[in-house]
Design goal:
- By secondary structure, the protein is mainly α.
- Helix content is about 80%, strand content about 0%.
- The chain contains ten helices and no strands.
- The longest helix is centred in the C-terminal third of the chain and has 30 residues.
- About 35% of the residues are buried.
Length: about 230
């Protein structure tokens, strides 16, 4: 009987890793219909940009993997709200700043840093920093800093389409709000799964497997992006 929680944990980890590979083409990617809209748009389109932002976050596995790590051991609603707000503040600043100021950043390197953020959070959740160095970095500050890099990741994708100046700020605000909505929807499902598992004896095994998988996914993302950088 005791084997079933382990099997369920393993199945979930396998599902997460399979999702990682299946979404690798979509993350930071843009489908044909969205690409056509962005390339042809010349005015304020609040609702479409809201939708694009939400869809981008839901399919943006790198952002979601980092956030899963961030909230994994947060039990209080106020703590979850605080950490997610720090991340939101970070990526909102660099998303708007990056596009409006036309700050050019290499997309491969930014995405590699985003992969590093996933590795960091998994390693931190496993107690790696305290075990090796005796002290972990300030978690809130790290979430804010990596949030800044995640925002540049979003900005680099939008910059590919050379959006027109007319209505740009409004469209960016709509996109950013959409990102927050997509983030909220995705994290709601994640929290339901984690909250369910916290009531079971297998949670410690589940947490170890999950955060090990986060680190593995982060390393794969780093390798994938650095390969793209050196071969592009």
């Amino acid at each position: 009987m005791t084997i079933y929680p382990q099997i369920r944990s393993l199945r979930l980890i396998i599902f997460l890793l399979c999702s990682f590979f299946s979404l690798s083409v979509l993350a930071h990617g843009v489908d044909d219909s969205t690409r056509a809209f962005l390339e042809s748009n010349i005015s304020v389109e609040f609702i479409p940009f809201l939708y694009i932002g939400a869809k981008h976050m839901v399919t943006g596995y790198d952002h979601l993997l980092f956030l899963i790590g961030v909230i994994f051991f947060l039990y209080k609603s106020k703590d979850i709200l605080l950490y997610v707000s720090m991340f939101t503040l970070g990526h909102s600043i660099t998303l708007l700043w990056g596009v409006l100021a036309d700050i050019q950043v290499n997309a491969y390197l930014i995405d590699a840093i985003i992969g590093l953020s996933v590795v960091y959070k998994g390693f931190d959740n496993l107690g790696g920093f305290k075990h090796i160095f005796g002290k972990a970095p300030d978690a809130k500050l790290m979430v804010l800093i990596f949030g800044l890099f995640h925002g540049f990741g979003l900005a680099t994708k939008l910059q590919e389409f050379q959006l027109p100046e007319e209505g740009l700020l409004t469209n960016l605000i709509a996109f950013n709000i959409g990102v927050e909505l997509g983030q909220f929807i995705a994290l709601t499902f994640v929290l339901l799964i984690i909250s369910y598992w916290r009531h079971h004896a297998s949670f410690i095994r589940f947490s170890t497997l999950t955060n090990t998988a986060l680190m593995s996914a982060g390393f794969m993302l780093i390798g994938f992006q650095l390969t793209g950088y050196f071969t592009a």
